[in-house]
Records
---
Amino acid sequence: MNANGGQLDAWLIYRCEDCSSRWNRTMFERRPVGSLQPGLLEALQRNDQGLANAFACKLAGVSGTCPDTGFGLERRLVSGVSSHADKAVLTLLNPNRVEARVDRVLAMGLGLSRSSLVNMVKQGALKMPPITAKALKRRVPDQFVVEFNRPAAPDKTVMFERLFDFSLP
């Protein structure tokens, strides 16, 4: 943000994760401070994530919720679980409240299709509260626990082995 003589400019500032280059995308320019909606100035001053996402979607010409607000995955082994275990428990943390669907995050992290995840729920190989395929379409809450059970068929254990492959992005 920049203010000059009662006029306000605001930008979304982006940073490339690969090279750390930065660039600005204008939200608005030379708006009188008094013309701003109540709470907008305060949200701009505290770098409100929801406001930034809403403006990013609006600037991209997307109506409703933005389909790609961008998220990254960080994988950490919390306990000494081996790849020979019958069950794996994943905890998804979303401290920045990124608007991403559970199925999208799991599919990206496991290298699976979303339909594969739905089938896993139906077969009981993937469990989460509430235990429905519809839960996959919801936004990832602040914290979410997912349980994977090793399939009985040996040819279906590839996904399960991926849970323990920390070389994946």
---
Amino acid sequence: MVDNEYRNSGLSKSSISVIDQYSKDIVKELSCYGKMSNLQKGNLEFDTHCGGVNKSRNIYMVLGYDIDCINALREILNTLNVGLTFIDIPLSERNIDKVDVRIASLLLFNLEQLAYHINFVVNLFSDEVLEKIKMSNEITVENVSSITNLLLLFMQLRDELIADFKNVINSAANLKRYRRLMEAELGKIIRDGKIQKKIADSADFAKTIQELVIEIVKDLPKVDMYINARRI
């Protein structure tokens, strides 16, 4: 069943191996969330053993910067035998089915997709691009209005997905003693459904926003977000 989910997700076998290859580092990075200390001027920063800012901050972002939800995600990963207790044991030596790694990989991949779409849109509006928009002769009330409306829709969808992700992760963690029920709950993220459609819609919004910006800033290089989407 999980193999079918992989095929339906649009991931190639090579993509799957890349995800599995880096799952150890992802779990290590997730362990740093919740281990924060107060510094001078009231700033918060990760403990020094975490090596500063984590690459998995994207997952932290799409869970609403909610430490409790991050802890719930870590509980799920532990239940799937890919948590911190297991990361130094080669997969070949673990007494687990590869299904566990695949579920975790698909879960993390789908969380990362929203983060990629958010970062993609943010990068479209760098200071340099904003200055070019300001100076462009192509700018009109209509195209500025179109971009603004799409940005509002994109942000609304982002907020909905963050809420969806948090609800599913927290609910699945509460079901961790009942594996089938936990997996069924996670299926709301890793299988085709309402959340998958919203993720696809966020990609479409981001692509359309890029196209509208390019209409104003002619020399802005077009990035194919589907080819360059960062894989976990």
---
Amino acid sequence: MKNKNKRQRHRQRKMGLSVGIPLSFGLLFFPFFYYLKVGLKIDVPIWVPFIVSFFFFGSAL
């Protein structure tokens, strides 16, 4: 029973990381592109943040 719980926790941790890391990147890219556009005055096309975030959100699924 102890090994079963240990394997289950390991599986949950792996699943959390495989979903959480790409999801975090997807969320963090919006403020990053905002900083590029407003803070550094770099003209980033509006579709770039959406494509990048779509990629990371999609990989989180």
---
Amino acid sequence: MKSERLLQIMLMMLNHNLVTAKELSIRYGVSIRTIQRDMDALSRMGIPIHSEQGVHGGYSIPTGYRIDRHTLTSKEQALILRTLRSVSGMVDDSDLNQAVAKISSVRATDVQLEPVWVDILPWDGNDQFSDLIGIIKQAIIDKKRLAFEYVKASGTTSQRKIDPFRVLLKGYSWYAYGFCHLRGENRLFKISRMRNLKRINENVYTTFSGEVPFANGEGHGEAIHVKCHKNIFYNGDTYIDPSKVIFDDEGYFEALLPFQIDHWTFGYLLSHSNYMEVISPKAVRDELLKRAKKAVDLYK
């Protein structure tokens, strides 16, 4: 989105002495003309953008400049800072770390008092996972291809080569989005399912500037009709809309879950044990029964 790109460009200029329109257009997958319009927009916001012409020219923000307190509200500063801190804890990125330091210096007292805390890190860290994200990120910047073995939810594996375009966080999972040479189209890959990831010495010549379609291609969407015990409601399940819950005399209620029918969904349904029964589709109910029987056999 444009607002996100403007913020990223502003932070990048705060962390670098000089950036060129060509460098920014490649980094964000837009035209040089779009970058020029972005600079005009930042100037209208009160950001002192200096433009230098010539072979060694580019855009810069004066050294020592701090974002004026009227440019971002204290709540906006706090939200950005919390999010950056969380992501920088998972991804070793010098730009992110410098951005955290700079924003921390702006109205630091207000930021500390902000009651909303954004933390996407797991309880136990995962250095190897952080390394994977770093490899993908650097390949995107350097316009290099990636090769890896991909494990689908079904357990089948395949060798993939992709032109990487984006690293994304969706829900609780990280994804890489790029052109898959095996399938001949843009695909979304769950990073936790990548094995033996490596950057290869092949250049990427294509660019991508659109919205990433969030569909993993490993399942199909269909509303799942479930009957739930009141304990699920009182435990605050985030996928149940409380405004639509009507209890019967025995303390049960019915709901529709708009999920992708895939490995994650079956895990979610099984995690509720005897407190959630699938009414339909029949195929989901039958698959749950089969998986439950396998789990019972394992512990006999």
